[in-house]
Amino acid sequence: MRQGLRRPSPSLVISVLALFMATSGSVYAAKSAKIHGKAIKVKSLPGNRLKPKSIPANRLKPGVLASIPSAAAGAPGVITGLEVDELSLGQVPEAAHADSADFSRHAVDAETALNAVNAVNASKVNGYEAGCLPETELFASACWQTSAADTAVSAPAAAQACAVQGGELPEALQLAAYSQEASLEAGSEWSSDLTTFSGPNAYGVVTVSPSAVLDSVLSTAPRKYRCVFPLLR
Q1: What is the pLDDT of residues 149-176, one digit of tens each?
Q2: Domain span holding position 79
C-alpha cells in the first residue's frame, strides 16, 4: 500500500516563509542601494559608458589620452577629451610658454624702443663717427664748411684739397641751394660739375655766385671753394 504525502508541519511553513522574506529583502536592498566606484571592477567600463566631463584630470594616468586611439577614429569604448572635465585641468605647458612669449615680445619691443632712442643720441653708427665737425654745418644730409677757403685755386687743386680732408666739392645745384641758406664768397665758388671740353685738360667747370647764378669758367682759373663732408666718417 503506497504511503501518501505528508502535510508540512506549521513550523516548517513558517521557517520557509521567513527565509523567503529575508532573501527578498536583501535583493531589494541591493537593488535600492547606490553603486559606488569600489563596487566596479577595474577596467570593466568602456569610455563610451562614462558621462561627458565626469572625470577630473587628476584621476587619469599621465599620458593615457595620448596613448590610446581616438573614439572619433573608429575605436569605440575609449576615453577621450570629451569625458574629461576641463575645469579640473591646470595650465598646460604650452599656455605657460605663451605667457612667457608674450612677456618676451614686450621686452623685445621695449629694447627696440630703447635702441631707437639711443640711436638718436649716438655719436657712432656701426663704428662710424656721426655728426658734423667744427666749422661745418648740416645741410642736405651732409656737413658743409661754413666758410670758403682763404686762397683761390684752380678747380683740380680745389678738388684735391677737399679729397685730402675726406670731403669733396659740392654739386652745382646743391651749392646754389646752399647759397640761399648762407653767404658765398664774393665772385663765385667752384662746384664739382664739368661742362664742355676743348682739348686735353682744357674744360669748363660750373661756378656759383652768391646770388645762386650758375656760370662756367676754365678749370685753370682761380676761384674760392668750400668742401662738403659725409655725415658718417
Answers
A1: 999 999 999 999 999 999 999 999 999 9
A2: 43-90
